[in-house]
Amino acid sequence: MKLRILALLVCLSVSAHFAAAQTLGKIQGTVKDATGAVVPGAKISLNHVATANKFSTTANEVGYYQFPAAQSGRWAIAIEAPGMDTFKGEFLLQTGEVAVVDATLSVGAAPPRSPSPATSPPW
């Protein structure tokens, strides 16, 4: 009797695992600049549009990132790095799909500068 209960519990556990896996997909990509050089350390932020769940990660030393178990549905993505313009987009992740979101960041506008004392008016 104990063996049958144990077997039933194992079956239910495995079934629950596969049921959860059937609603997931994977999101991955590479972050580069306009010259094609990778951008290590870029911050990747994801927002699941329907649930407002948020996740973030950082691109590795070759500009690669991944979210290995993401819920299916519509996602908003933002990728940013110091001195670069932010990449923004939206995409639909299907169950079991691997969504590849590669980003090319362009150099951002220089921050505003305040005048130096040598060029300030003398008053």
Can you tell me the CATH topology of the domain at 34-108?
A: Immunoglobulin-like
- Name given to the CATH homologous superfamily of the domain at 34-108: Immunoglobulins
The biggest sheet amounts to: 4 strands, mixed
Gross geometry: elongated
Order of helices and strands: HEEEEEEEE
Number of helices: 1
Strand content: 35-45%
What is the name of the CATH architecture of the domain at 34-108? Sandwich
Structural class: alpha/beta
Cα-based radius of gyration, to the nearest Å:
23 Å
Provide the low-confidence segments as ranges.
6-21, 115-122
Q: What is the helical fraction, as a range of percent?
A: 10-25%
Average of the residue pLDDT scores: 83
Distance between the termini: 95 Å
Number of strands: 8
Overall description:
With 123 residues, the chain is α/β, with parallel strands linked by helices. It has a domain of 75 residues: Immunoglobulins (Immunoglobulin-like), CATH 2.60.40. It contains 1 helix and 8 strands. Strands 1, 4, 7 and 8 form a 4-stranded mixed sheet that branches. The protein has a 4-stranded antiparallel sheet with strand order 3-2-5-6, with no helix packed on it. β5 and β6 form a beta hairpin.
